[in-house]
Write a structure and sequence with these properties.
Blueprint (H helix, E strand, L loop, with lengths): L10 E3 H4 L4 H17 L2 E5 L5 H15 L3 H4 L12 E4 L2 E10 L4 H11 L5 H28 L6 H7 E10 L9 E6 L5 E6 L5 E4 L5 E3 L6 E6 L1 H6 L9 E4 L6 E10 L2 E2 L17 E2 H9 L10 H6 L2
Parallel strand pairs: 1-2
Antiparallel strand pairs: 2-10, 3-4, 4-5, 5-12, 6-11, 7-10, 7-12, 8-9, 8-11, 13-14
Helix pairs in contact: 2-6, 3-6, 5-6
Length: about 300
Amino acid sequence: MGFVAQPNIPVINMVDMKQTTSFKTSFACNEVRHALEEYGCFLVVCDEITEEVNTKVYDALKTLFDLPIDTKVRNTSPKAYHGYVGQLPFLPLLESLGIENATSVHGVNSFANVMWPSGNDDFCKMIQSYAKLVSEIEETVRKLVFESYGVSNYHEYYNESVTYLLRVMKYRPPSANETKIGSISHTDKTFISILSQNQVKGLEIKTKDNDWIPVKYPSSSFLVMAGDAFKAWSNDRVHSPYHRVVVEGNEHRYSLGLFTYHKGIITVPEELVDEDHVRKFNSFDHFGYLDFYDKDSQFELEYSHIKSYCGV
């Protein structure tokens, strides 16, 4: 039997996505749209985030995760999956915290004041500026996809309703007889997720052909991934991929995810419904979907939770 090469996740440069000539914008729109329809994700190289910035960000994460458990569990939220997650018997390697409204000074300060009652200005400045830079990638991607589908007029409305959650994650190395699964196979419930990691690998994406492919991050790069809300908004054109984390070796893996949610109702644009694309999703409340998933007793199964929630 011949060797079958694994597909590679597309890589797009941030500079190319920001080109303003009509031809280059059109090319970037098509490239981004194709990647999200076929893979549900792509890697974007962004030179604005240097190795020095990355080092400082991950040093800040180590300081955060070194805090006592009693302190970290104070990271709470009324929204599902927005607070502390850890000490789970079925995911013993994972520990994670959520920073709501992470692109705003107030949002990061509110989080830091819980972790460090006497304040931590360095952490706040580093994390807020990082989240702001990554949010610019998210907005650029969303703008290009909307333009590609001919619905640019909706972009401003989505800008006004967007809210950013920065989840920071730590995966400890497994001991001899422990599972290597750091995070079970799942789709994100977001509109868009943007993920980065330290030098320790572990993230894997499931293709439409059900092959697991490891994510190999180029220098100064991020993985842009479509979530279930984007899939529904696009009337099932955009693919929301299953992904997981498998932890190998004996180093701690640190990761950041900027997760986009929308306040209020998400509706499939009428322009995306036609004879070839019948309506597949009803309008839905994004945070309502998150609560629905949180209460789903079959949350770990691979089936379309979004179709179960708001499918036609």
